[in-house]
Design a protein that fits this description.
The radius of gyration is 32 Å and the shape is elongated. Helix 2 runs antiparallel to helix 3, helix 6 packs antiparallel against helix 7 and helix 7 packs antiparallel against helix 8. The protein is an all-alpha fold. The chain has two domains: about 70 residues, no CATH class; about 45 residues, no CATH class.
């Protein structure tokens, strides 16, 4: 069983040399930092009752934390400008979007419009997105 396991599970207080070795290997280990400070006779500001904390639910811990000081982040009324959209949108003026229309644009030499239609088709038909992306790539290579 490692020293860390003994400290955490059994409550074993390691020697000063063991604490130094532990903090050298794991400088972020707060339990070792507290034990080191206590072994050096430092008066700690916090009185932590591990058994009490273990019995508290997550909600109780959060409530206690928020009661000490109000750490809530609240948006002000003027902060929210518009709703967040997580799906791609196509403008309302695009009544007809089809592969046939993109091919007509290509036949007429309107490559930019064809690419635009293929990009919209990628948004509408995700299962064929690789196919449409390949079409766009071929058009751009032929430019």
């Amino acid at each position: 069983m490692s020293l860390v396991d003994r400290v955490l599970s059994d409550g074993v207080v390691p020697s000063a040399e063991e604490l130094d070795a532990l903090l050298t290997k794991y400088p972020w280990f707060s339990v070792a930092q507290v034990l080191k400070a206590q072994s050096e006779g430092a008066q700690l500001r916090y009185n932590i009752d591990a058994a009490k904390i273990a019995e508290e639910s997550e909600g109780e811990i959060i409530s206690r934390f928020l009661r000490k000081s109000d750490y809530r982040i609240v948006a002000e009324e003027g902060d929210v400008e518009e709703d967040v959209c997580i799906e791609a949108e196509i403008a309302d003026e695009d009544d007809v979007v089809s592969e046939e229309l993109a091919e007509i644009y290509l036949a007429q030499g309107l490559k930019c419009q064809a690419i635009e239609i293929y990009r919209k088709l990628i948004l509408l038909n995700s299962e064929k997105s690789a196919y449409f992306a390949e079409k766009i790539e071929n058009i751009e290579k032929n430019n």
